[in-house]
């Protein structure tokens, strides 16, 4: 079987049709170049050049072999470049887990910036609840997770990328729309669409704690997991809801928003989490991009 160095010598000599110039291009002397081509001809069993004291020409076999030889050289160079890009973190694949809420605003920005700045890195996006993300991080199914709380475990590292306010979502005609800002007291006894304890425990526990602190008891008319479902029920007039600020990007017609002034200023947080032992070369580049894109506060 021939070697890549022999193919490279043949292609260069075929392009120059002069062994001296071909040797100079390859930074070698002419005798080793001639030997490489002679070995290649013996392996193929056909002459590739017609050589005289005055000229060098390709044989019919050489003319047929040249485009295929060029292709072999190109494939080898492309494979080498691809391998180097992966090793340097400029190419590859990154698995990203995210909750539905982070997919409303923050994640689309990451995707857009990644396509522009890291075009050779493929993002494999997987919508998962937090518990699924933790398992996927451990097994290597994803490289980065976007979770509502940092993982207090040695094998993980985390960085807060977003903190945002809670706001009230009200249907058209709600009397509270006459007030520019609301307090939690405005929801006492009011029909409220609540987060499910099982599927949205982060928001469920947060609101239960906030209501308890100010002795507010809403009327929980429905419990759901996804914020877009919650806003749909608000639009239908079933009740009101308390949602993170980024939910406004969903732009539900018939749903209006008001600030809530009696809760911590930015209580809703999102963390980027990754496994310390992750050796994916592309991880650093994607992490840095996420840190730059992150609005930090909303």
UniProtKB/TrEMBL annotation:
Keywords associated with the record: DNA-binding, Plasmid, Transcription, Transcription regulation
Coiled-coil regions listed in the entry: none
Cellular component aspect of the GO annotation: protein-DNA complex
Domain of life: Bacteria
InterPro entries: LysR_HTH_N (IPR000847), LysR_subst-bd (IPR005119), WH-like_DNA-bd_sf (IPR036388), WH_DNA-bd_sf (IPR036390)
Gene3D superfamilies: Periplasmic binding protein-like II (3.40.190.10), Winged helix-like DNA-binding domain superfamily/Winged helix DNA-binding domain (1.10.10.10)
Residues annotated as domain HTH lysR-type: 2-59
Protein family membership: Belongs to the LysR transcriptional regulatory family.
Protein name: Transcriptional regulator, LysR family
Annotated organism of origin: Asticcacaulis excentricus (strain ATCC 15261 / DSM 4724 / KCTC 12464 / NCIMB 9791 / VKM B-1370 / CB 48)
């Amino acid at each position: 079987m021939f070697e890549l160095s022999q193919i490279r010598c043949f292609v260069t000599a075929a392009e120059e049709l002069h062994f001296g110039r071909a040797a100079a291009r390859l930074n070698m002397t002419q005798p080793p170049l001639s030997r490489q081509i002679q070995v290649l001809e013996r392996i193929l069993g056909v002459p590739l050049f017609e050589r005289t004291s005055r000229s060098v020409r390709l044989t019919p076999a050489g003319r047929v072999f040249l485009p295929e030889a060029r292709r072999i050289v190109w494939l080898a160079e492309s494979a080498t470049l691809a391998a180097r890009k992966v090793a340097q973190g400029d190419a590859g694949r990154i698995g990203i887990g995210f909750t539905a809420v982070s997919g409303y605003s923050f994640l689309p920005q990451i995707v857009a910036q990644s396509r522009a700045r890291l075009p050779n890195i493929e993002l494999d996006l997987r919508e998962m609840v937090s518990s699924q993300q933790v398992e996927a991080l451990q097994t290597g199914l994803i490289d980065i997770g976007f979770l509502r709380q940092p993982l207090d475990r040695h094998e993980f590292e985390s960085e807060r990328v977003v903190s945002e306010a809670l706001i009230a979502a009200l249907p058209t005609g709600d009397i509270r729309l006459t007030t520019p800002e609301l307090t939690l007291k405005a929801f006492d006894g009011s029909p409220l669409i609540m987060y499910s304890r099982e599927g949205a425990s982060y928001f469920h526990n947060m609101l239960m704690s906030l209501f308890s602190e100010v002795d507010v008891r809403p009327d929980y008319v429905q419990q759901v997991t996804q914020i877009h479902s919650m806003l749909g029920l608000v639009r239908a007039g079933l009740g009101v809801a308390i949602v993170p600020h980024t939910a406004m990007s969903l732009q539900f017609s018939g749903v209006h928003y008001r600030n809530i002034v009696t809760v911590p200023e930015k209580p809703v947080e999102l963390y980027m989490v990754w496994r310390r032992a992750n050796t994916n070369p592309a991880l650093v580049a994607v992490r840095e991009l996420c840190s730059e894109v992150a609005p930090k506060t909303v």
